[in-house]
């Protein structure tokens, strides 16, 4: 019985020893495996980008305003005759006329007859005046002889003066009828463009009836509305650039600033003379609503390319490149534009390095691969003088530059999908 109990104890001791040995072996194996652990793979760049630094540029200072294009002066051409029939209309709306040009004519039949009658009355009055003058001269020669009394001599002298006055009245009547004859023609008072026509052939019009309206000298002006605060920045002679409805630009110059401010909206009118253009068809016409900019000079500004700016949630951002090749999203305040560059007024240092191409595909803290953008090739299209077009900072950014190595890595080791990364 004692022998059986001893054997069981020996077996338990041997099992415990074996278990301890196994634990030691496993611990040694795990320690040795930890010393030869495989190193983790380096993080993959999220995108291959190009960088740029801000640059200084001279940008124009402009004051933008809205207003209406009107005629500089509009002349009303009416009828000076009364009760005559309109027989001919020689111009229409839009015609360019010269000073003294005949625009319309009235019937001259009755007026010519009245002129002939007045001329005959003048001839009769002049003949009577000549006869009375001769009688007075003869009576005056007989004054010393006593053949005629003093009273009779005075009567001859009075008759001569009366006949002379009647001849003058007849001459004035003839001049009035001749003037009425000239008024049967409607004459342009100045050079200009006909803007309205009310004359109709066959109509019998009274004196003062409006027949035509004319824009004097074809001059137009832009009446801009500016606020009271902006009024102090303007002066006579300030150049203005007006944007026409067809996209062309019209130059102008401030002629006058209104002496009063409207009490309803607290705005004042600025009268801008529009300079003539070489275009056959005028880009602006009276009555148009237009927007323009007053050129107030220029100033230095810190600018970046338009594609560097990303608009998110109503704010503008750029991505600042750090030393560890990661980017930081920085909020900025954009200002004026010049072609494809935008002024940055706040939030960016002059020596900062920011992402240019591919900024629209990045998030804050992304790792990037920086490459240099290849120089532009001088093609015939790029060598032409293409005018600069204002750009919108909210336009989508240009497609990013991706190297062949990144493409291969994207195929073999696709990056982990993360929100906000449209490439994944």
Secondary structure blueprint with pairings:
Layout: H1 2-35, E1 47-49, E2 51-52, E3 55-71, E4 74-78, E5 84-89, E6 96-97, E7 102-106, H2 109-141, H3 150-182, E8 185-187, E9 192-197, E10 204-205, E11 210-216, E12 220-227, H4 228-231, E13 239-243, E14 249-257, E15 267-274, E16 289-305, E17 310-312, E18 315-321, E19 327-338, E20 341-346, E21 354-355, E22 368-370, H5 380-383, H6 404-412
Parallel strand pairs: 1-22
Antiparallel strand pairs: 2-21, 3-12, 3-16, 4-11, 5-7, 5-10, 6-9, 7-8, 9-11, 12-15, 13-14, 13-16, 14-15, 16-20, 17-18, 18-19, 19-20
Overview of this protein structure:
By secondary structure, the protein is α+β, with helices and mostly antiparallel strands. The chain has four domains: 47-58 and 299-375 and 383-412, conserved putative lor/sdh protein from methanococcus maripaludis s2 fold, CATH 2.40.420.20; 64-72 and 219-297, Efflux pump adaptor protein, beta barrel domain (Elongation Factor Tu (Ef-tu), domain 3), CATH 2.40.30.170; 86-106 and 185-218, RNA polymerase II/Efflux pump adaptor protein, barrel-sandwich hybrid domain (OB fold (Dihydrolipoamide Acetyltransferase, E2P)), CATH 2.40.50; 108-183, Helix Hairpins. The protein is 28% helix and 33% strand. The chain is built from six helices and 22 strands. The chain has helices at residues 2-35, 109-141, 150-182, 228-231, 380-383, 404-412, and strands at 47-49, 51-52, 55-71, 74-78, 84-89, 96-97, 102-106, 185-187, 192-197, 204-205, 210-216, 220-227, 239-243, 249-257, 267-274, 289-305, 310-312, 315-321, 327-338, 341-346, 354-355, 368-370. The strands form five sheets. The chain has a six-stranded antiparallel β-barrel with strand order 3-12-15-14-13-16.
